[in-house]
Specification:
The protein has 772 residues and is an alpha/beta fold. It is 44% helix and 12% strand. The strands form five sheets. It has an eight-stranded mixed sheet with strand order 16-15-14-17-18-21-19-20. Strands 3, 4, 5, 7, 8, 9 and 10 form a seven-stranded mixed sheet that branches. Helix 8 links the parallel strand 3 and strand 4.
């Protein structure tokens, strides 16, 4: 091959030399440039192949000598001396000088190329082996040490996530030294009669003299396997509890403290406690028992306190828990390693001593300490001592409260996900930076065995997970294969069941929502799901509105204005059109105002009526279910004439239609006009209402002329415009609030900036109402 190539190059150079020597100077330049261009094209293609296959083949790249014809330059750099630009290339002289050593030189090139190829192939092999070892380590690495934290589940397998505290990370609490004696369990007047659920209110009040008027004592309980195992990060998170709650007592328990506590105060449970194989199961059992005995707040050491406990624990609260998540299907919940479609968390909760729910979950653990619930070891823990058992005990007690079978003194507040259940990765879109977060779980360590869900995965299952991760459809893939899992097991779902969620409002109240996925109506499902996440109706803003700035707060300002001018009858009349699950209606009724709620969707009517009855507000809320009456438009004026006035009006996005808006004009311009009006609009709502943009602008101008001159809005349009204030001397209800102002000249820009799907809240205050 070398001889053939050499002969070819020599013949090619000979032909080129003859053509150049017989041509004119101009022709020589043309021929040379054409030859060079042709050679460069072939060389560029060859270089690309060399670059792509460098690691695989190790073929060395042949360098070209600039200034020489390609045939000569490629044939050997030592032959440049035989080339003369005027007379051409002297082939005979080159052959004479090269014949003696050209064979040895070619053989040397082959040896050098072979050595280079071996070196490159060896390096490539080492890199491939290293990559394989890294992949094997990531796939089959051992589970982290069994930490003494909550057995509550977390989506995305993020129990091993290492994230620092949000603030105050440089202020570390002093870690207790090994060998320091554990805190002594202080004697109390609480007895361990846990087999009865009959407790008198007087006895309960006597137990809590240390916490003033609140039934939950000012105690924070935390536990870990040993004091010496605490890290600086653990200490920093624990310090947030003492910093945020200076009047509270902090108590820490290690493994030996927990054993002594259970043996001393609950000897009837000690055998079951000691028989639990996993430390995390003993930790679960202990947290229920310590709050059952002493009351207070239990929190894992990897939780961060964001708000003072006294701000959200009310005087009559006896048990406070938080929702962790809610899912549309069983397979979706199973694929995310949850054991209930709607599940509470147990890494933090607060309770008064002696609560029946804690008694029930303790009895459940005592009876099933050795029971095998499923073949999955991790799910066994969740069912035996974790959120599965806790959720069932809470829902059973709630049903008894609704049916009147339980003492209402032992209440339960089940907070939305944003308060206790946020995730560092912001799962379900709920960020840990939200202002309503009370306790943030930071996931310092994990107790779950990687193979404890459905056994060890095969190599092709790992490859499928990697593929779908790159494809960005991993949650859908996991849900698809979940139902085919041999360990698949989820409890039967009752589609008629109502789930409580504590609304974020003062005074607090409970809303009842259906389980997502049990209703066909998407609007109803979306509203209930949002309430479970945030405890308020949805309003899409770049920055979440804080308490005191929400649309419900603005409505309350207007109602209180009117109530202040009502003389002896200081009750306001609030009309809610499209009331949904009743957040606005019950919120205004909790302030002792009378409410007329119009709702026509059957599922929402059923849940709202149950919530009104559960909160004991039946005298303040009347639910109107006749949709045709409100569609006529004159129903609002007729209602005002029947009850004597209308002080506040809300028309939701589902309730707006052209006839209703036309009929509302007579009410807005009458002496019975409301002092505050809330409209919820978006581009789709306007299009479906039969009202054009021009007609809505005319309605706005009509309201402005009728005296509604203090107007603000919040939502996507406000975030896009950013007009927070107007050049006006008038005092406004929106001063110092995250709302945008509107005047008669800007309504067109507000409407044009509205989002197609997300609602814009627009609040109108009448200038004839009393001052703030």
């Amino acid at each position: 091959r070398q001889r053939s190539r050499r002969a070819s190059l020599v013949a090619h150079a000979s032909r080129f030399t003859r053509r150049v020597n017989t041509a004119t100077a101009r022709d020589r330049r043309v021929l040379s440039s054409r030859f060079v261009r042709s050679r460069r094209r072939r060389r560029s293609r060859y270089s690309v192949c060399l670059g792509v296959g460098w690691f695989a083949s190790g073929t060395p790249r042949v360098k070209m000598r600039r200034g020489l014809p390609p045939a000569v330059a490629g044939f050997g750099t030592t032959r440049a001396k035989y080339y003369d630009g005027d007379s051409g290339y002297d082939l005979e002289r080159a052959a004479e000088d090269d014949d003696a050593y050209k064979y040895d030189k070619a053989r040397g090139r082959r040896r050098r190329a072979t050595r280079e190829w071996v070196r490159l192939r060896t390096r490539s092999t080492y890199i491939k082996i290293a990559c394989v070892l890294v992949v094997l380590y990531l796939v089959f690495r051992p589970a982290p040490p069994d930490t003494f934290t909550s057995s509550s589940t977390a989506a995305l397998d993020a129990e091993e996530l290492q994230l620092g505290p949000r603030t105050g990370g440089d202020r570390l609490a002093e870690v207790p030294r090994a060998g320091v004696s554990s805190p002594r369990i202080l004697p109390t007047t609480v007895t361990s009669q846990v087999k009865t659920q009959k407790h008198e209110n007087d006895d309960m009040l006597a137990r809590n003299t240390s916490s003033g008027s609140k039934l939950v004592p000012r105690l924070v309980h935390q536990t870990y396997k040993s004091r010496s195992a605490l890290t600086e990060r653990d200490a920093a998170l624990m310090k947030t509890w003492s910093d945020m709650n200076p009047g509270w007592e902090m108590r820490f328990y290690d493994d030996e403290d927990c054993k002594r506590f259970v043996n001393e105060h609950f000897p009837e449970y000690y055998q079951a406690y000691a028989s639990l194989e996993k430390k995390v199961e003993q930790s679960d059992f202990f947290r229920y028992l310590v709050v059952l005995k002493l009351g207070g707040v239990y929190a894992d050491i990897d939780t961060e306190c964001r708000q003072p406990l006294d701000d959200f624990i009310h005087a009559k609260d006896t048990l406070i828990v938080g929702w962790e998540n809610e899912f549309f299907t069983d397979s979706q919940a199973y694929s995310r390693h949850f054991v209930r479609r709607r599940q509470v968390l147990n890494w933090a909760f607060a309770g008064a001593p002696g609560h029946p729910v804690l008694i029930a979950v303790a009895n459940h653990i005592n009876a099933g300490a050795q029971k095998i619930f499923t073949k999955s070891t991790n799910r066994n823990t969740l069912e035996r001592t974790g959120p599965g058992a806790f959720t069932d005990a809470l829902m059973d007690h709630f049903q008894k409260l609704r049916e009147g079978e339980a003492n209402t003194f032992w209440n339960v507040r089940m907070l939305p996900k944003v308060n206790f259940g946020t995730h560092p990765l912001g799962e379900e879109g709920v960020s840990q930076d939200h202002p309503d977060v009370v306790i943030a779980h930071r996931y310092s360590g994990g107790w779950k065995d990687k193979s404890g869900w459905n056994g060890k995965r095969k190599w092709y299952e790992h490859m499928a997970i990697l593929f779908h991760s790159l494809k960005s459809d991993l949650p859908e893939y996991r849900e698809k294969i979940a139902s085919r899992d041999e360990h698949f097991q989820m409890p039967t779902v009752d589609s008629e069941k109502m789930y409580p969620v504590n609304a974020l409002w003062k005074p607090s109240f409970d809303l009842l929502t259906p389980l997502v996925g049990t209703l066909e109506d998407e609007v109803t499902t979306a509203e209930g799901y949002w309430l479970t996440l945030y405890g308020r109706p949805k309003l899409a803003t770049l920055s979440p509105l804080r308490a005191g700035e929400t649309p419900a707060d603005m409505l309350l300002v207007g109602l209180n204005r009117r109530a202040a001018t009502g003389g002896a009858n200081n009750k306001a009349i609030f009309v809610d059109v499209g009331a949904g699950f009743g957040y606005y209606a019950i919120a205004m009724a909790s302030q002792a105002h009378d409410v007329y709620a119009y709702e026509w969707q059957d599922a929402m009517v059923k849940n709202m009526q149950a919530a009104v009855d559960y909160n004991g507000l039946g005298k303040n809320v009347q639910i109107m279910t006749e949709h045709s009456s409100i569609e006529r438009g004159d129903e609002l004026t007729a209602l005002a004439e029947r009850v004597g006035k209308v002080d506040g009006l809300r028309i939701s996005g589902r309730g707006i239609n052209g006839a209703l808006l036309d009929g509302a004009k007579s009410l807005l311009s009458s002496p019975l006009h409301p002092g505050v009006v809330l409209l919820e609009l978006n581009a789709k709502v306007l299009a479906s209402s039969g009202y054009s943009t021009k007609q809505f602008i005319e309605l706005f101008e009509f309201m402005w002329n009728a005296g509604y001159t203090d107007i603000g809005h919040a939502g996507p349009s406000c975030d896009g415009r950013g007009v927070r204030s107007l050049k006006s001397q008038q005092q406004s209800a929106f001063d110092s609030k995250a709302w945008c102002r509107i005047d008669v000249s800007s309504i067109g820009r507000v409407v044009s900036a509205m989002d197609d799907n997300e609602l814009e809240a627009i609040v109108f205050f009448h200038n004839g109402a009393a001052s703030i």
